[in-house]
Amino acid sequence: xxxxxxxxxxxxxxxxxxxxxxxxxxxxxxxxxxxxxxxxxxxxxxxxxxxxxxxxxxxxxxxxxxxxxxxxxxxxxxxxxxxxxxxxxxxxxxxxxxxxxxxxxxxxxxxxxxxxxxxxxxxxxxxxxxxxxxxxxxxxxxxxxxxxxxxxxxxxxxxxxxxxxxxxxxxxxxxxxxxxxxxxxxxxxxxxxxxxxxxxxxxxxxxxxxxxxxxxx
Amino acid sequence: xxxxxxxxxxxxxxxxxxxxxxxxxxxxxxxxxxxxxxxxxxxxxxxxxxxxxxxxxxxxxxxxxxxxxxxxxxxxxxxxxxxxxxxxxxxxxxxxxxxxxxxxxxxxxxxxxxxxxxxxxxxxxxxxxxxxxxxxxxxxxxxxxxxxxxxxxxxxxxxxxxxxxxxxxxxxxxxxxxxxxxxxxxxxxxxxxxxxxxxxxxxxxxxxxxxxxxxxxx
Lengths: 217, 218
Description:
The structure holds two protein chains of two kinds. By secondary structure, chain A is an alpha+beta fold.
């Protein structure tokens, strides 16, 4: 039987997870669930925050081995702030994504983490980048990642529209994450969303009982 | 030096699977079943136009997934058993009977077989019904999806399914779900086959690749 296997062969704590980032008219929304599990049978944390702020208007979220992800983001944060001081201006989102990409690509044998970077900068406005496991960097209007993302490919393909409003985009992201949490047993908990625009950063948390319900719940 | 030329291509030794997307949904008065048309052996597509919706009886169909040989054999055997059963009973068989026959084979030979059939049809007692027989379980559901491509559309079908959809809405639902899965799953593709079964019989339809709905990135 063709069983679709999720790539959760990591040892130790893994963020078997669902993460996404979506561009809308004027900003980006980056979101994730909040479950960290060990081997898919034990939830080691119900409310972990997988959205890491690497600069004022740039966030990234992590999928894969939690230890690798934390180590990489720490280094990336440092390199990015150094870069920003040298350039004497806020860094570009692409710069942040490239730094993560360099770290992932040069250490691809040892590491097991994929990233989504999203943010706003003066040059290109809102952007979403994805860095895959081997270190490929790609810019997209929206992207999904983590083990739970397989279940929502159909949904996001069908429902995404370019130039959504902030409210529509919040609803889209919340729905997508809820559907993935509903089907993936290593995703769960609350939904963390961060809305990044020129004016600032807003963190929205949707607790489990406020998540949208679908036909069988 | 010339040894390589006589070695067989990989696809001759790979098992033929209908790595696939199948879906069935019931509505008031019938069911709609749908499938893609790709049959793969490893990385090769050995048949790009296979109809995976197989009739078990006049108003009962099943959708095949998993190993092509296993699935086809189960369908043939159940087709025969249902014919015998319906003669003995003297009327059209129930969908539940067909599903039970499939389940019996799947369960008894669960170690040897690797195929999953979704059974859907119409009978006078229960109207349109959909049964899943995965791994030898028998379960009646409002709708069911299966095959390798189904992973990608769980979110979509969870969000879009509503109780009480009409025949036309169910057909659109099936076509949309199949298209989304075919776009993402490497083992699903080709054309979409749809069968609508109601009290008047079965209506088969084939939707070619260029007639399928398009989504954001296409």
